[in-house]
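// run 5 | inverse folding | seed 20
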């Protein structure tokens, strides 16, 4: 969200078509955002997390045939079940070792087969439990990323295009996100938490989603990405505005063209340069 001094704010307000405008001090804005977080985002997160735990219960019930009691928490019940299975497996192994002493050759073969089956079952349960834990953590990460976009206002664009940008950003951040002590932390290439150099704290989901989605966020005087030099508008032979952009051959749809113009060519969405380039190069492209 842009920050203005008084003169800039007055100039911006005069250029708006709205008949009513809300003006907030930084303290009032912080209060509004905190209230929105408590009344909307946190409630939504609670609902989504409850759905995740219901899914985990259903998956474990399918695998084990057991039904979790309604008054026991998911994260307490299933680890205890796995622990019980492991203890039963260990007990079975000890019984097998006892039977080996003085047994016949055939009996020893049967015992060895039972031992291997017990080990395989134990390993299988451990792998399934580890996967469940990993899937649960990833669902928590994605739910938090979903909620982090609610405070962002995006430029007016087709919903398929907007959804593609958001999904790509979520997938990129989710791959580097992990839950540490109940908090979502994003790791860098070395496995260390990514630190916001302005706050000297780990980046929040809201901060990184705003960075990833910056090209499509609705704001005044959008700037192209760092290192990008957007093409300039020129006049064609008829004196009309024209713009030249090197479009790759793999851009085969209007959706791909939109992404290329914003992310690579450095043309913010719905700006005069973007519209000029889009109109020129999208004529024969499918959606």
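// decoded
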């Amino acid at each position: 969200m842009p920050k203005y001094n008084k003169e800039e704010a007055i100039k911006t307000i005069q250029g708006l078509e709205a008949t009513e405008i809300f003006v907030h001090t930084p303290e009032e804005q912080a209060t509004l955002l905190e209230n929105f977080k408590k009344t909307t985002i946190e409630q939504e997160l609670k609902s989504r997390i409850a759905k995740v735990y219901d899914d985990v219960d259903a998956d474990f019930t399918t695998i084990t045939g057991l039904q979790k009691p309604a008054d026991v928490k998911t994260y307490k019940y299933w680890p205890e079940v796995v622990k019980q299975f492991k203890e039963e497996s260990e007990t079975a192994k000890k019984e097998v070792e006892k039977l080996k002493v003085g047994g016949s050759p055939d009996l020893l073969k049967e015992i060895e087969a039972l031992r291997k089956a017990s080990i395989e079952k134990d390993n299988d349960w451990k792998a399934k439990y580890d996967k469940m834990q990993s899937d649960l953590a990833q669902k928590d990460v994605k739910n938090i990323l979903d909620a982090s976009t609610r405070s962002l206002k995006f430029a007016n664009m087709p919903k398929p295009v907007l959804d593609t940008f958001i999904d790509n950003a979520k997938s990129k951040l989710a791959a580097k996100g992990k839950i540490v002590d109940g908090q979502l932390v994003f790791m860098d290439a070395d496995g260390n938490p990514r630190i916001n150099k302005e706050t000297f704290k780990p980046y929040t989901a809201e901060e990184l989603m705003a960075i990833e989605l910056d090209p499509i966020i609705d704001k005044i005087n959008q700037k192209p990405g760092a290192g990008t030099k957007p093409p300039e508008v020129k006049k064609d032979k008829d004196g009309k505005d024209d713009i030249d952009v090197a479009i790759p051959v793999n851009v085969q749809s209007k959706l791909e063209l939109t992404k290329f113009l914003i992310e690579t060519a450095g043309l913010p969405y719905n700006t005069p340069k973007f519209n000029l380039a889009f109109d020129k190069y999208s004529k024969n492209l499918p959606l």
